[in-house]
Specification:
The complex is a heterodimer of chains A (353) and B (287). Chain A has 353 residues and is an alpha/beta fold. Helices cover 46% and strands 18% of the residues of chain A. In chain A, strands 7, 8, 9, 10, 11, 12, 14 and 15 form an 8-stranded mixed β-sheet that branches. A 3-stranded parallel β-sheet of chain A has the order 2-1-3. With 287 residues, chain B is mostly helical. Chain B has one domain: Orthogonal Bundle (MetI-like fold), CATH 1.10.3720.10. Helices cover 77% and strands 3% of the residues of chain B. Chain B is built from 13 helices and 2 strands. In chain B, a hairpin with a 2-residue loop joins strand 1 and strand 2. The chains are: A alpha/beta (353), B mainly alpha (287). Chains A and B meet through helix 3, helix 4, strand 9 and helix 15 of A and helix 3 and helix 11 of B.
Chain lengths: 353, 287
Amino acid sequence: MKLGLVATSALIAALSTTAVSAETLRLLTWGGYAPEDVIALFEEETGHTVEVTTSNNEEMIAKLRATNGGGFDLAQPSQDRITSAQEEFGIYKPIDMSRVDAAQIIPSMLEATATNTTFDGAVFGLPHVWGTSGLIVNTAKAAQVTDYVDLCDASVAGSVSYRLKRPTLIGFAFSMGLDPFAAYADADAYKGILDQVEAKLTECKPNVKTYWDGGDEIQNLLRSGEVVAAMAWDTGGWQLNADNADITFVAPKAGALGWIDTFVLPSRGRADDAAYDWINFVMRPDIASMITNTAGNFTAAVNGDSEVSAELKARYQGSFDQAAIDNIKWYPPVPAGLEALEGATLDRVNAAK
Amino acid sequence: MVTDRSKLGFYLLLSPLLLWLVTLIILPHIGLFAVSMSEKVGVREYETGFGNYAVFFNEPLYWRTFARTAFMSILTTVLTLLLGFPIAYYIAKLTRGRTKTTLFLMCLIPFWVSELVRTFGWMILLRETGVLSNFLQYTGILSEPVEFLYNDAAIMVGLVYTSILFMIVPLVTTLDSLDDSLIEAGYDLGGSGFSILREIVIPHAMPGIVSGCIVVFMLSLGNYLTPILLGGKDSLWFTGLIYTQFITRFNWELGSAFGFLLLGLSSAVVFLGLKLSRQSLSDTMGR
C-alpha cells in the first residue's frame, strides 16, 4: 500500500516534470527575429514548441494590455517603451537573472538595458537585437539627402516617405538642432519642441508621397523608384542594397536613432521555462548569427557576428563609420504620458492640408 | 401543456439570437461605455465623467474628421446608387434565365476574395508605376508617370467598388417584384421613359433603395482598410482615429468615446436620411 503510494506519486512527479520540460512558447516578436530554421533547431533541442506572432511596439503593448499581460510567454518591445508600459498597465514580470546565461550577452548592452528597464527596483528587460532608424536614399537620384530635414527639400518633392510615428518627430527635432531627449523630463519644454516639429512636418507634407506603415511597404516604394528618399530602418536599406547598389542606408548628419529590442516576460505568461530556454538559445553566437542574417540587424550576443555574411558586414560598415556610430542617438526610456502629447501632434500633422 | 411546449420552443429558437445580442453586442458595449466614461488624470488614476466626449467637441480636428468621413460616405452612397441602379435594373428587368444568373454571379465574384486583396488590386492598378499609368503612357496620352493613388478620388473608387454589391442585391430583389405589366400600362397611357421611371419604377424600388443606401453608408463609414491604404497621406478617416487612439496612443478611454460617438452620429445621419426621404425603417425592412 505504502509502496504503491510512493510509486504513484513518483509517477505523477515524473509525468509532471515531462509536462513542464516540454512547453509551448507563445512568442510576440518582430518579423525576422524568429526564423523558421532557428525555431526548428530549438524545438529539436529542447522539445518545446514555438508559436510566433509578429507585431510592432505599439501593438505589443496594446495586445498585452487587453489581456492584462496574458496570452504570450515572451515579448520583444524596444527598451525605451518598457518602464512606461509597466508603470501604466503592469503587464510584465521581472527577469530572474539567475536563469539567464549572462556571459553570452555583451556586458555594456546588458547593463544599459537593465538601467533603462528598471522599474521599482526590478529589471524587466534583456537586450536582443539592436539597430537604427535613419535615411534610405537612392543615391543615383537623391544623393543630396543627408539629413532628416533634407526630405523636405524641393528637389525631392513628391518622392519622399516617412512614418507618422514618434521616431519621425525625434529625428526631425534633432535635425532642426533641438534635443528632444534632454526635454523628456520637462513636459512644457517637450511641447515646445513638438510644436516646432509640427510646423516643419506640416510645411513638408506636400513633399511626401505617402506615410508608410509597414517595412514591406517602404521597400516596395523604394524598389519601384516611386520614392527616392525615406526615413526608415537600416536593415531595410541594406536589404534593398543587395538588389540595387544605388539604394542604401545613410546615417543622417544629425545622428541615426538607436533602438534595442528586448526580451520581456508578460506578467501572466505560463511558459517561463521555455522563455528562458529560448533566450539562452538565441543568444548563442551561432544562433545569433542566423538571426542577424535573416533580420539584417546585429544582436547583443557575444561574438554574435562571427558567422554573419560578409556582404551584410560590408553594408553595415559602408553606412556607419566610427563617427556615425558615436553619433547614434540611443532612445532613453519614454516617461509615461509623453505619447499623448506626441499623438496629438501626429494627428494634427495627419489632418493638415 | 401545448402552450407550455410552444413557449419552450419559442425560447429555444430565441436563445441563439439572445446569446448573440447579449454576449457579442450588448455586454461589450456596456464595457466600452464604462471605459469611455473614465477620464485619465494621472498614471493609473481615473475619474468618472464626460471629459472624453468633451474632447471630441472641443478639438476641431476630431469633429472635422467625423464630418469629412460622413460627407465622403454620403457621396459614396450616392455614387453607388447612381452606378448600381442601372445595373440592377438591367439584371432584374432586361434579362431572363441563365443570363440573369450569370450577370448576378459576375457581380458576386469579386467578393469571393477578401477586401484586403481587392484593395491591393486597386493599388497595383493606380500606383505611379502601376497598370493605368503605364497604359496611358503607352498610348501616348501621358508623357510621364502620374500618381493616381493617395488622394480622395482613389478612396472614393475603392469604397464604391467595395460596397456596390450591397446596393445591387436589394435593388434587384425589389425591382424583380415589380410587375412588367405596370410599366407597359405606363407606356400605353402615353408616359415617357423618364416619367415612368419617376412615377412607377422608383416609388416601387424605394424600400430597396433605402435599405441599400443604409447598408452602403454604414459600410463606408465603418470601413478602415480602404481609406487607409488608398488614401495615403490624406487618408483621414474616423475609424482610423479610433484605431490610433486604441493601438498607438494607448488611450482606450478616448477611443471608446469616439466609438460611441460614431455609433450615435451615424444613427443620427441615417435617421435624418429616412426623414428627408419620407421613409420609415419598418417600411424598408418589412417588404
